[in-house]
Specification:
36% strand; mainly beta; binds zinc ion; seven-stranded mixed beta sheet; three-stranded antiparallel beta sheet; 141 residues; globular
């Protein structure tokens, strides 16, 4: 994989660059992601926050609890989320990456909220809730 890769919003005013390997690539079926993206399932690729550089327009953010989601103020494209409990990583929407085909998801998260008509028989591990340990709820399965 190339050492340095880029991504951005649909209109191109918000851009970012990431360095190194992703720390996490996953599909999320939770209702929050569904509302935030409008898609039946969301895919995320995470990088350590100190390996990310934003350029162009600053992202707008919307926060709910410890989770803050960013989007382009001009075209509205969802870009990423950060979770204050695991704030050392930025979780980009896979589709915001310029080369999303490079990031193959490794698991499904929140399958207990998966839409009943959505079938993805890919053999990947399926977590009922979150797959990322968070200090105060420690959820998994
Ligand atoms: Zn934009
Ligand atoms: Zn989610």
């Amino acid at each position: 994989m190339t050492d340095q890769l880029e991504g951005g919003c649909q209109c191109g005013e918000l851009r970012y660059r990431v360095q190194g390997e992703p720390s996490y690539v996953a599909l999320c079926h939770c209702a929050d992601c569904r509302k935030a993206t409008g898609a039946p399932v969301s895919a995320f690729v995470a990088f350590m926050a100190d390996a990310v550089t934003f350029s162009g327009q600053s992202p707008r953010t919307y926060s709910e609890g410890p989770v803050s989601r960013s989007f382009c103020a001009t075209c509205g494209s969802p870009i990423a989320y950060v979770d204050a409990r695991i704030g050392d990583q930025i979780f980009f929407l896979l589709g915001a990456m310029d080369a999303p085909e490079l990031y193959k998801p490794t698991l499904h998260a929140y399958v207990r909220e998966q839409l009943p008509f959505l079938h993805m028989p890919d053999g990947l591990p399926r977590h009922l809730k979150s797959s990322v340990p968070r200090p105060e709820d420690g959820t998994d399965q």
